[in-house]
Amino acid sequence: ADLSHLESSAKITSYTLDPTIDKKPKDILGACFENSDLVLIPAGVPRKPGMNRADLLNINITIAKDLVEACARFCPNAVVALIVNPVNSIVPAMCELYKRHGLNTSKILGVTSLDGVRANRFIHDITGTPLSKIDVPVIGGHAGATILPLFSQDPVANSLPQETLVALDRRVQDAGTEVVKAKAGRGSATLSMAYAGAKLCKAILNGLQGDETLPVKSRTAFAYVQSTVTELPFFTSKVTFGPFGIEAVHDLGLLSPYEEKRLAEAKKILAGEIQDGLAAIRAMLPPAATADELKNLEGVGLPSSRL
Fold first, then answer.
1. Which residue out of 101, 124, 142, 250 is catalytically annotated?
2. pLDDT higher than threshold 90 for residue 187
3. Taking the CB of the first residue and of the last residue of the chain, which one, N or C, has fewer CB atoms within 10 A?
4. What is the distance between the alpha carbons of residues 82 and 289, in angstroms, rounded to a whole number?
5. 181 near 165, Cβ under 8 Å?
């Protein structure tokens, strides 16, 4: 009822999963997901003080898996944007799930736009420059030291002393913890995340329209996606969206010596977190069929869970 009162032509319909019914989302969310072009999934438990990444992954991967399996069944061509922490591990895990279903893994992405929103705001607070003139790229991942703001690529930010930028780099990395502490462990970033998620979704929807008269900038945003811009299989990069989802994943551009050093550190951490997600989902799924098994079973039929 709350959202349906907004001044918008969008039709608002609510769906609720009944915890007393012993059925998974993939069995009952047809009416909600069918014919969707974009599914935004803000799910899972929030990070709490004292909770480590493994704790969060073990809880939230099951929640993400249930919902992404529903997407695979009811809207397999939709772009699926995940706000499920730890994003660095959850997105690779859900791509592995889509791979097992024989679906396009580039349809899965992680919402990291909050990191850019924070970097822009922190620069604005220091300089007083209008936010419309600040656009700090943030690459890497979406947790701790994997978050890498490229202040050198924004003229306003790059005008600040290096020691200020180093301090801001650390603040952007720790901004999520800053919010958790401010809420005394009773929650994490929600309103700012909703704003950042909406920014990303607007870019995706602009791309999905297929309207070539729209500026490329209006359908471009940063997201954690499967890519080849680095040696890692997943990385937060600038992404341009088109009528079928991701249209282009852009190169990183020039980095300062400090950012080059940070990039090497971030990639080392991110590589491990990607593997954590893949290991976790593979432990939940039946073993994938080997090439020899597929050859031997040609024409016999193989359950989709083994493909």
1. 142
2. no
3. N
4. 27
5. no
